[in-house]
Amino acid sequence: MCGIAGAVDLARGVDRAEVGPMVETMACRGPDDEGLWLSGDSGRAHAALGHRRLAVVDVPGGHQPMTLERHGETVLTLVFSGEVYNFQELRRELEGRGHAFRTASDTEVVLVGWLEWGSDVVERLNGMFAFAIWDDRSEELFLVRDRMGVKPLYWYPTPDGALFGSEPKAILAHPRAEAVLDLDGLRELLAHVKTPGHGIYRGMHEVRPGSFVRVRREGADVHRYWQLEALEHTDDRDTTVGHVRELLDDIVSRQLISDVPLCSLLSGGLDSSAITALAAEKLRAQDAGAVRSFSVDFVGYEDAFTADPMRDTPDGPYVRELAEYVAADHTAITLSNEDLTDPDARAAVLAARDVPVSIGDMDTSLYLLFKAIRGRSTVALSGESADEVFGGYRWFHDADAVNADTFPWMAATRMGPLDHSTGHFAPELRDRLDLAGYIDASYRDALAEVPHVDGVSAQERRMREVCYLHLTRFVQILLDRKDRMSMASGLEVRVPFCDHRLVQYVFNTPWALKTFDGREKSLLRAATRDVLPSSIVDRVKSPYPSTQDPGYEKALRASVADLVSDRDAPVREIVDLDALRAAIDAPQDGPSIDTDRARMESVLQMDAWMRRYRPTLAL
């Protein structure tokens, strides 16, 4: 998996002493090895590439930065994060073209592939990846990100080059980068939409999914190498279901490749259960033993569970049934209120996120789950993104949400600008934010990108738009969260449902086929029914769990009360103290409970972020 960082300066050169700390910030992403390479001669380097390694494939031979030489001179240098799942096929093709390899790693395949095909190699890669490659021949840096944006990559242009890193913290460790949050950055934090390319901090950008950035003397430019296309779908129902299953079989087989212990994340829902069951089936066929699986739970959660608008049932019974059904080696990680409110765990979440966007106990529990898994496995398969691909969220099937003139998830969950997003800020700051206008502009920009086919009904056209919004604006929020929480513990999480072949195929499947049985995720349910118990096939979508223990809410309110009374708390300058006091004193039940809780979580994380990162607020 790994973390990468580096700098290019084509005028004054780069300083090892300035780049070294950038690389060190990536230690959590790569606990197994590190390296730093500088270009140039006579001590003057135009480029520095750094790497922290989490060893997954070719453990002894995959050291980075990795260089490629011709005629005794280095021509290409690469730092790579992620996995290429088709590297063995590409390696055979490159060997057929006369290339020799020194290692068994996928990293070297990318490096040699770049020599053979140049930047066109990215269109041949199947995987999740973010990498930087320096071409010493032309003195150009390329920053490349996978099609769906599973792996993060940020960059910060400078007058004569750029800084880059897997996470903002790497860039902010360089003295030329400044941690400035302006109004647009704050709007992006609060909008519940991830604008492609937005880096939150002023001057910082995220490499857009399916794109690469080229940095050279003439400046920097961005190239899109992949995006969703509108294609006519001609397969009938049986053929469509069969092709989805063929793709899933191939995807899971590829993503089981690992030289270190591997497991699955299991919630008892359709998505994670399908991945776990398919993995179990393939491991049995290879005589590779039982699939190892992990789930998260809370002390007393199942016994005291109360249905809410998002969750009809607890996960526990379904997790146990699936684990028994596929004979998994299963472990449930059970967390207490003390775990969820532990200051060190909450600080680790902030350090992983780099910005105050925590969703409270759901982030903390995910981090603690991954930390516990890392003691037994290095790689995990996840069911993330199936809802975006197959249309699984409840608001996909809510006519009011679908037809609202905004992002459907906002219409359905009331996560708009007048709700908890800005309610904790001082009134004058709320006015300056104009979050409603920002979200509307973002929505219009996204709609303008949607590719369409001719001759379809108004509903089909709208559902294509809804699917596109989720695959380009919503899924990024969840992928970023999962990457940060997992890599904070040095755990690699793979997301089979983000394979671009599956995403493209299902995107062009008509909505009537996606819902042919009158329910959500009809295609996934039909394609995996044979490997799942009927109870899980029929289970209604249930999101990632959140604790219902009133003790957590009580501890949260106490923490906010301490903050409100702390006259040195930096967040006091931007929040509405009266609104916070009202939230603290409000009853611990009723219609405002979720809004109050979200506001309090946000304020606590904002204050912790201001203390730790000491940003300049240009608001």
Describe the structure.
- Helix content is 41%, strand content 17%.
- It is α/β, with parallel strands linked by helices.
- The protein has 3 domains: 3-224, Glutamine Phosphoribosylpyrophosphate, subunit 1, domain 1 (4-Layer Sandwich), CATH 3.60.20.10; 237-393 and 480-537, Rossmann fold, CATH 3.40.50; 550-614, no CATH class.
- The strands form 4 sheets. A 6-stranded antiparallel β-sheet has the order 2-3-1-9-8-11. A 6-stranded antiparallel β-sheet has the order 4-5-6-7-12-13.
- Strand 4 (66-70) and strand 5 form a beta hairpin.
- Helix 6 packs across helix 7 (270-285).
- The two termini are 36 Å apart.
- The relative contact order is 0.12.
- The mean pLDDT is 93.
List key phrases describing it.
about 625 residues, alpha/beta, Glutamine Phosphoribosylpyrophosphate, subunit 1, domain 1, Rossmann fold, 3 domains, six-stranded antiparallel beta sheet, 24 helices, globular
Class by SSE composition? alpha/beta
What is the terminal separation in angstroms?
36 Å
Report the sheet-strand fraction: 15-25%
Q: Strand order within the widest sheet? A: 2-3-1-9-8-11
What is the CATH architecture term of the largest domain? 4-Layer Sandwich
- Major pleated sheet: 6 strands, antiparallel
Which spans have pLDDT < 50 for at least 5 consecutive residues? none
Count the DSSP helices. 24
- The top level CATH class name of the largest domain: Alpha Beta
* Helical content (DSSP H or I, runs of 4+): 40-55%
How many strands in all? 19
Described by the principal axes of the CA atoms, the overall outline is globular
Mean pLDDT: 93
Estimated radius of gyration: 24 Å
How many structural domains does the protein architecture include?
3
CATH homology superfamily name of the largest domain: Aminohydrolase, N-terminal nucleophile (Ntn) domain
| Named CATH topology of the largest domain | Glutamine Phosphoribosylpyrophosphate, subunit 1, domain 1
